[in-house]
Design a protein that fits this description.
Hypothetical Protein Yjia, Chain: A,domain 2; six-stranded parallel sheet; six-stranded antiparallel sheet; 18 helices; binds guanosine-5'-triphosphate
Length: 559
């Protein structure tokens, strides 16, 4: 039976389901699965920047049951964003690992020293892992890593390539993206919720052309059965749970490694902006900028301009930006609108954000695929709040521009370090007030600033101290089974995709989901309202589309 059989509606084969293809797929997968020779079994997860590799890792860790799965993340950027996004600290605390950092620093396509050390430490670990999963960086050539794995005595069982269904066509001019597809044993066509059925079909055709028929599976958030992506069938047996006392989770501990220099970045001074090539340069840069800030000096023109050379003749650059001072959400929004959306060669941004307008809450930020900005509610800060962002692209001047723009967003004691250059007829507070009034007049919305809703969210900042922000909800309907969380998540996705306004989620419970928009002196309340109001119509029609719209038991504002 095919490994893909029995997965119901989740699975769609990328080509005509003829017997020949199924047999080819089965022999390819099972030849590998049955490969003898001992050694730790390993799946290599590859795929272009932002396709969903870390999402797959999270899914694996969530579903792993009693399996002791070690996970290594081979990060392109210099700061360890993925360990934060994977919430490795809490995962490992829960499973008894004392300290965790992830492998990264993949400055080239091959297994860097760091990764090699991490693999060796997994193999000799006292946790006695059952299986190893390695996420390659989004621009890595998996073949080279595969060869290194073989040399290290790791048994490479499967190469899984994750594809962004919405963005595949635009990244196929990058040679390494094609290579990642060609080498795959199985391809996950991810983010199917963002693409039309026709577009997904086109992606399947392209994948089939490029790979000659590698099995491709449609999915959302990489939600696939584990035995499709891991060679774990032989490990799942009733004795496993009872004979094994240690159920350590698999994000790899580096505690045995002699050095972990990147950790120093987190003990950074105030602000760090750098094009990275060497760690030596980085520490120099940290000191430089820190001194400059404490002197109140300007930070423009302080970016080291060193290129980051990647693979296959194409050059990828990464810029890291860190600040232990909060950013203005309003200015951050204008950066998305003015800089990110008009970028030509920015492929990826991700990180953790701390906003002046909502100091108690942590947000995760993603920029991926078809210029999609996404903010995810990350709960209350449990550690020292800070912002850490990574931008990956090919155009140095574009990345410079973004770095410089971000400096404008930094606030000190509630004020911008760099004053806004933009003249405006309304102040930010007046703009927020006008927007509030426009929204309050529309009974599809609940404006939450002064209402009691916010007092339930102790983690949300008090509106009174931030008159430049408005918090609100699009009203759902329990009776019709349309949850406010789904409705507002859809609204946020549409607004953030349109790109003129950047919404962040202030809370995320099933029935009560509050969004926040912030105003700078240059933000137009009318245009902001127009964007949100139009998106609300689209969100309502999407979420209520299977619901009978006219019921007399509903309150008038929900019609
Ligand atoms: N709508 C939607 N978003 C998704 C899906 N899968 C992943 N994402 C989002 O896509 C963004 C990138 O996902 P990641 O898993 O971080 O991508 P990645 O391949 O690990 O990224 P890099 O390691 O930086 O190359 C995040 O904002 C995810 O929440 C999906 O199926 N649907």
């Amino acid at each position: 039976m095919s490994a893909a059989a029995g997965y119901g509606g989740q699975i769609k084969v990328s080509m005509k389901e003829d017997n020949q293809m199924c047999l080819a797929f089965e022999s390819r997968i099972f030849d590998k699965k049955e490969r003898q020779g001992g050694g730790l079994g390993c799946t290599l997860v590859t795929g272009f920047l932002g396709s969903g590799k870390t999402t797959l890792l999270r899914h694996i860790l969530k579903q792993r049951d009693t399996l002791r799965i070690a996970v290594l993340v081979n990060e392109l950027a210099e700061i360890d964003i993925d360990s934060v996004l994977l919430q490795s600290d809490s995962l490992n605390a829960a499973y008894g690992l004392s300290k965790v950092t992830l492998a990264h620093g993949c400055a080239c396509c091959s297994t860097s020293g760091n990764l090699r050390d991490a693999i060796l430490s997994v193999m000799s670990s006292k946790h006695n892992f059952d299986y190893l999963v390695i996420e390659t960086s989004g621009v890595a050539d998996p073949l080279k890593i595969a060869k290194d794995l073989e040399n290290l005595g790791v048994r490479l069982d499967l190469i899984v390539t994750v594809v962004d269904a919405e963005a595949l066509a635009t990244i196929l001019d990058v040679p390494v993206a094609k290579k990642q597809l060609e080498i795959a044993d199985i391809i996950l066509i991810n983010k199917c919720d963002l693409a039309s059925l026709g577009a997904i079909s086109d992606v399947e055709d392209r994948v089939e052309d490029l790979t000659g028929g590698t099995k491709a599976i449609r999915c959302r958030f990489c939600n696939v059965p584990l035995d499709l992506v891991l060679n774990i069938t032989m490990l799942i047996n009733p004795t496993l749970a009872t004979t094994t006392a240690n159920t350590a989770v698999g994000i790899i501990s580096h505690e045995t490694l002699s050095t972990a220099p990147l950790l120093k970045i987190w003990q950074k001074p105030d602000i760090l902006v750098s094009h990275e090539t060497s760690r030596k340069e980085l520490s120099h840069q940290q000191v430089h900028i820190s001194k400059s800030l404490s002197n109140g000096g300007l930070m423009h023109g302080m970016l080291p301009m060193t290129d980051y050379q990647a693979h296959e003749g194409s050059t990828f650059l990464s810029v890291t930006f860190s600040s232990i001072r909060p950013l203005s959400l309003a200015v951050f929004q204008t950066i998305i609108v003015n800089d990110l959306r008009f970028s030509h060669d920015l492929f990826r941004a991700k990180g953790v954000l701390w906003f002046e307008e909502n100091r108690s809450t942590r947000f995760y930020f993603h920029w991926s695929g078809q210029k999609r900005a996404e903010a995810v509610y990350g709960g209350i800060w449990e550690s020292q709040p800070s912002t850490s962002l990574v931008f990956i692209g090919r155009d140095k001047s574009e990345l410079d521009l973004i770095s410089k723009s971000l400096l404008r967003a930094i606030t000190v004691d509630g004020r911008h370090v760099f004053d806004s250059q933009m003249p405006s007829s309304l102040t930010a507070a007046e703009a927020a007030d006008k927007f509030s009034q426009l929204m309050a007049a529309d009974n599809r919305f609940r404006v939450c600033n002064q209402c009691q809703d916010l007092s339930q969210h102790k983690d949300s900042c008090s509106f009174s101290s931030f008159p430049t922000s408005v918090m609100f909800s699009l009203i759902g309907s329990r009776l019709r089974g349309v949850h406010e969380a789904d409705l507002n998540a859809t609204l946020m996705q549409i607004v953030n995709k349109n790109g003129a306004v950047f919404l962040i989620p202030v809370s995320s419970s099933r029935e009560d989901h509050i969004l926040q928009v912030s105003f700078g002196d240059e933000t137009s309340p009318d245009l902001t309202w127009r964007d949100i109001s139009t998106a609300a119509t689209a969100a309502i029609s999407k979420c209520f589309k299977n619901v009978c719209l006219c019921r007399c038991d509903m309150t008038p504002h929900q019609h």
